[in-house]
Structure formats: structure tokens, C-alpha cells
Specification:
alpha+beta; Peroxisomal Thiolase, Chain A, domain 1; ten-stranded mixed sheet; three-stranded mixed sheet; 13 helices; about 25% strand; binds 3-hydroxy-3-methylglutaryl-coenzyme A
């Protein structure tokens, strides 16, 4: 039997403040429905400078280790997927290793390719375990980012931030990944990038949507071919995506997941018909596509709608949202996951939900994380946005979390501890 590999447990860290998206719309003189309906957003996480990529990553990793009582001597690899690291050379992974006091007997590094960096990290960990190189050890994979486009820009309502920490092992009790079945698609495009030294991303927004849609179709087809060969998809008369219990998409904003799902269906329907859809088929697809989105995708978007874009963590927040909402009923079922990183690189893969998924995700206490946040007004949001990158916030981090505490002797320092009072 093939070696099992995948996600054993998951934990999340989100900034402690948020802005209601309607408040942003009113302040920018935009109809709120453009953001709530047009983009599918409700709230947006606002990270202050103390909640940087390292602090969020260390907080999520601490929560994971504590909630599941993980023996750190059994972790042999720590990989952080991020595109908003804090140093050109020293990886976020080594800060996390130090803050958590993890053993020295592990491989540590960061992976970067825009939002795809988290999936690059996850797949590196899966390959390491499946190859036997891990020698029975597990990997800690953390996706951590602050999504920042800047005030008054078209991307402003699609900002956010979070970290997702995952234990990856040969005991994938949350999600057993169909290792070796991924479909990939990549190409050199300037859809979104962040030149060295700049804090805000540069984006060609509408073009980035086109790039994403081209990538999802390409990666999906490549995955479908391999999944069909492995016998996961047996009915050639219907869209193969419908043979997955759920689909989770990278969600820079929730409406993007809807666009992606409808695009995948449309490509499949046209392939099945051998021609572009006629008017009657298009009218039918308008109804059926909407119903398919509601059934297959909507439940994975809860956190994205309340936190915003989280770059590398987005897909895995989608997984957490879905299992939080439907973990019990999905046990034993196969789902598809699509990861997209601008630039671009993308990957479609699949996995089977473990029997203990609902219990494991409950330990992430997602409802509490959302409820514990403070809603801020537009004035406070704009004040925080204008704080210098290395500005510090007086309040010390609550136990069990970390915060950036300033630069001393050219070294970034952090306050906080893994201990919970
Ligand atoms: P925009 O140009 O201001 O918005 O920016 P728009 O005019 O395209 O409108 C947005 C939607 O609202 C449209 O819906 C409108 O019709 C609708 P659609 O036609 O697309 O379905 N709308 C309304 N709906 C209801 N009531 C109204 C109303 N008015 C308009 N009154 C854009 C939108 C997404 C381009 C912008 O926010 C942006 O640039 N965002 C950042 C880029 C982005 O998220 N790209 C996504 C793909 S790339 C990606 O996923 C990678 C990424 O995560 C980075 C990485 O990899 O690291 C970004």
C-alpha cells in the first residue's frame, strides 16, 4: 500500500483588529454592495506592526503544538511559506524555531512564490515524508502573510492577513493527500508583484483574474488526467469536478473562488459538448453553476470573507473553514484544492478527509478567534496603515502569542511566549 501522507492537524492566528468592509466602502465613496456582493467580502483583518509575519507564524505554530500536545523531538522539518518575510536573508522559519525553542535537529527554510509559497512548503514536506527521508518524523508547515495594497487603491478591500500552521505527517488524520496526483500550471506573467523594498504590492487587477482563470483550467486538466488514471473519477458523462465532494480555491477575495468554480465547470461542459455552450446550455449553466457553487464551494469561504486575502494561508484557511462547518459529514470524502500564486505558479491536488477531522478542527477554536477581535473604525485603520513598518505597539502580547518588539543592534526582536496563563 502507498505511504499515507498529509495534514494531521491545523491551527490559525489572525490579527486582533478588523474593519467592516462596509465602513471602508462608505469612506471611499463606493456602493457597499460592490465590496460585499461584487467581491464577496464582509470584514478585513488589519495587522498592526507588532503582528508581522513572524509573530503570526509563531503564534499559529504555538497553538498547533499546544492544542495537540505535539512532541517537538518528532519534528524534523520546519518550512514557512511566505511572500512577506521580514529579512532578505534570514528566513521566517528560523525566527519561529527560536521563538518556540524547537530542537536543532531539524531542517528549516522558507518557500516563496507569491501565494503559492504555502503549497510549495506543503508539497516539499509531503515529498520528504513519502520518500522515506523523514525517517518517521513529521514536518511543521506554516503559511504566514500580511496582504497589503495600500489605501485608496483598487486592491484595498482585498487586504488581510493570517497564519496557518499545519502538522504534516504519515498520520494524516485531517486530510490524506492524494500524493503524486497534483496537476500544475505555471507561466511568467506580471499580474501581481512587490519590488524589493516596497511594502505594498503592485497589481494589474483585472489581468490577475485572467491569469488565475487560465491557471485553474490548466492545473485542473492536468490533475484530472492523473486522478482519472488512478481511478478517482469514474463517470465520464458529467463534469469530473462534480465527482469531488467539495472544491476549495485560493481566495484573494471570495468572488474569485466563484469565478474559478464556474470557469472549471464551463471548460468541462464545453469539452463534454465538444463545442461552445449554446444559449439554452448557458441559461441552464447559470442555474446549475450557482447551485454547484453553493453546494461545493461556499462553506470554505467563511474565514476568507471575515479576514480577507491571506496570501499563502488562503487555501488552508479555506480548508479550515470547510472542516469547521462540515467536518463530520465530509469524513471519508475526497475534495479538490486549488492553489494559485501570482507570477504565476499553481497546483490542483486532492485529498480525503480523515475520520477525526471535525474533532481536530474544533481544537483550532475558529469561532473564538473571530469573536475575540476588535472592530475598528476607518480613522483607526488609516492610523495603523500609516505606522512605520518597524513601529511598535505598547501593549504586550497576550500569553500564548508573539509580537514584534522593535529592532535592536540591527536585529528584530519579539516579545511573548508559548506559555498560556
Ligand atoms: P475594481 O476594478 O475596483 O472592481 O477592482 P470591479 O469594477 O472589477 O468590480 C468588482 C466586482 O464588483 C465586479 O464583479 C463588479 O461587477 C461588481 P464581476 O463582474 O467581476 O463579477 N460590482 C458590483 N456588484 C454589486 N453592486 C455594485 C457593484 N459595483 C461593482 N454596486 C479587483 C477589483 C479584484 C481587480 C481589485 O480589488 C484588485 O486589484 N484586487 C487585488 C488583485 C486580486 O485579488 N487578484 C485576484 C487574482 S490574482 C491572485 O489571486 C493572487 C494574489 O492572491 C496574490 C499572490 O499570489 O500573492 C492576489
Amino acid at each position: 500500500m502507498k505511504q499515507q501522507v498529509g495534514i494531521e492537524a491545523i491551527a490559525v492566528a489572525i490579527p486582533r483588529r478588523y474593519l467592516a468592509i462596509e465602513d471602508l466602502a462608505v469612506a471611499r465613496g463606493v456602493a457597499p454592495a460592490k465590496y460585499t456582493v461584487g467581491l464577496g467580502a464582509l470584514e478585513m483583518a488589519v495587522a498592526d506592526p507588532s503582528e508581522d509575519t513572524v509573530a503570526l507564524a509563531a503564534t499559529a505554530a504555538t497553538r498547533l503544538l499546544r492544542a495537540h500536545d505535539i512532541d517537538v523531538s518528532q519534528i524534523g522539518m520546519l518550512v514557512v511559506g511566505t511572500e512577506t518575510g521580514v529579512d532578505h536573508s534570514k528566513p521566517v522559519a528560523s525566527f519561529v524555531q527560536g521563538l518556540l525553542g524547537l530542537p536543532r535537529t531539524m531542517r528549516t527554510f522558507d518557500t516563496q512564490h507569491a501565494c503559492y509559497g504555502g503549497t510549495a512548503a506543503l508539497m516539499a514536506a509531503c515529498d520528504w515524508i513519502a520518500s522515506g527521508s523523514a525517517g518517521g518524523k513529521s514536518a511543521l508547515v506554516v503559511c504566514s502573510d500580511i496582504a497589503r495594497y495600500g489605501m485608496q487603491s483598487a486592491g484595498e478591500p482585498t487586504q488581510g492577513g493570517a497564519a496557518v500552521a499545519m502538522l504534516v505527517s504519515a498520520r494524516p488524520e485531517l486530510l490524506a493527500i492524494d500524493h503524486g496526483t497534483s496537476g500544475v500550471f505555471s507561466t511568467d506573467v506580471h499580474d501581481f508583484w512587490r519590488p524589493i523594498g516596497r511594502r505594498e504590492a503592485v497589481v494589474d487587477g483585472h489581468y490577475s483574474i485572467e491569469c488565475y482563470l487560465e491557471a485553474v483550467a490548466g492545473a485542473y486538466r492536468a490533475w484530472r488526467e492523473r486522478a482519472t488514471a488512478r481511478g478517482f473519477l469514474n463517470d465520464a458523462s458529467m463534469p469530473r469536478s462534480e465527482q469531488l465532494a467539495r472544491m476549495i480555491y485560493h481566495a484573494p477575495f471570495c468572488k474569485m473562488a466563484r469565478k474559478a468554480h464556474l470557469h472549471v465547470r464551463r471548460c468541462e461542459l464545453e469539452e463534454l459538448a465538444g463545442a461552445p455552450l449554446d444559449a439554452a446550455a448557458l441559461a441552464r449553466e447559470e442555474r446549475e453553476g450557482a447551485a454547484s457553487f453553493d453546494a461545493q464551494v461556499a462553506a470554505s469561504l467563511l474565514l476568507a470573507s471575515r479576514v480577507g486575502n491571506t496570501y499563502t494561508g488562503s487555501l488552508y484557511l479555506g480548508l479550515a473553514s470547510l472542516l469547521h462547518a462540515q467536518g463530520t459529514e465530509l469524513a471519508g470524502q475526497r475534495m479538490g484544492l486549488f492553489s494559485y500564486g501570482s507570477g504565476c505558479s499553481s497546483e490542483m491536488f486532492s485529498g480525503v478527509v480523515g475520520p477525526r477531522a471535525a474533532e481536530i478542527i474544533a481544537a483550532a477554536r475558529l469561532d473564538e478567534l473571530l469573536a475575540d477581535r476588535t472592530r475598528i473604525d476607518i480613522v483607526e485603520y488609516e492610523r495603523i496603515m500609516q505606522l512605520p513598518r518597524e513601529g511598535t505597539i505598547a501593549a504586550s502580547p497576550v500569553p500564548g502569542t508573539f509580537g514584534f518588539a522593535g529592532v535592536r543592534d540591527d536585529r528584530r526582536t519579539y516579545a511573548g511566549s508559548a506559555a498560556v496563563a
